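Customer escalation, tier 2.

The customer says the design service returned an amino acid string that "doesn't look like it belongs to this structure." They asked us to rerun it and document both sides in this ticket. The original structure tokens are below, unchanged.
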């Protein structure tokens, strides 16, 4: 997906993360100018780790790879959780996750992935700042929601100018 469809580069690094006596293997599946996509092994029972453990895994991973996306999947590969963490100077990190199940439509995930797709023509000027900015656009719902309401307010204000003779 990353290398064939999204224009990322092949990356085969492996990271071991120990959390609460569990050892998780994070296998990099692709890299784009310093941002790495990682696939995290499931728990020994085949399930995806819970949110608290995923956050611990992310914090440990950030010590080795600052900019990354972690994809958690169950042993049957029927459920995934895509995790990206928003980092801003002077602010606590904010975890953004997108769950996906094989039986649900993938439209929402596809929209996010389109944001982090890169064409050959972009390659020469591409930097980690651009790649991480596009990941932010894809996964940061707060930003999307804010843009929606700003646009809604503008449209509402424009519409009110057309209304005449109706008391407030």
């Amino acid at each position: 997906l990353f290398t064939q469809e999204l224009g990322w580069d092949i990356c085969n690094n492996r990271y071991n993360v120990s959390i609460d006596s569990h050892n998780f293997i994070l296998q990099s599946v692709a890299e784009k100018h310093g941002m790495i996509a990682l696939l995290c092994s499931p728990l020994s029972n085949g399930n995806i780790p819970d949110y608290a453990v995923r956050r611990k895994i992310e914090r440990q991973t950030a010590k080795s790879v600052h900019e990354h996306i972690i994809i958690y999947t169950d042993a049957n590969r029927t459920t995934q959780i895509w995790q990206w963490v928003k980092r801003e100077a002077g602010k606590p990190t904010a975890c953004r996750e997108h769950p996906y199940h094989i039986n649900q439509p993938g439209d929402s995930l596809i929209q996010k992935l389109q944001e982090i797709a890169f064409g050959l023509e972009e390659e020469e000027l591409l930097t980690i700042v651009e790649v991480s900015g596009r990941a932010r656009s894809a996964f940061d719902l707060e930003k999307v929601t804010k843009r929606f309401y700003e646009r809604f307010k503008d449209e509402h204000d424009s519409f009110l100018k057309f209304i005449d003779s109706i008391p407030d």
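Tier 2 assessment: The sequence is consistent with the input. The beta strands are 14-19, 22-32, 35-40, 68-73, 79-86, 94-101. The chain is about 35% helix and 25% strand. Sent an explanation to the customer and offered a walkthrough call.
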